[in-house]
């Protein structure tokens, strides 16, 4: 039985529209559920879960091996003129003895280890 749309009021048409939208949503949800089940079944047939294929869950993580060995400590480039046991590689923050020596008039070339 087909409704006669021309004889319906606006209110009746809006209710019919809402009913049709609800029915479409139910059918779409049912079809989506069936499609999901089919996709999971197909993934399982190949030995995967659907989450692994779609990237939602991480697959087994492969660890990378480092191509280089451990870093070697840098050789010292500067030494304290007053205490030769204190050295600095020239990297990172300047030590207090280096700052004090520069302030006292020494040049970096004078403190450089040759």
UniProtKB/TrEMBL annotation:
Keywords: Coiled coil, Cytoplasm, DNA-binding. This is DNA-binding protein H-NS. Transmembrane segments: none annotated. It comes from Yoonia sediminilitoris. Residues 68-113 form the DNA-binding protein H-NS-like C-terminal domain. Belongs to the histone-like protein H-NS family. One of its GO terms (molecular function) is DNA-binding transcription repressor activity. InterPro entries: H-NS_C_dom, H-NS_C_dom_sf. Gene3D superfamilies: Histone-like protein H-NS, C-terminal domain (4.10.430.10). Residues 6-33 form a coiled coil.
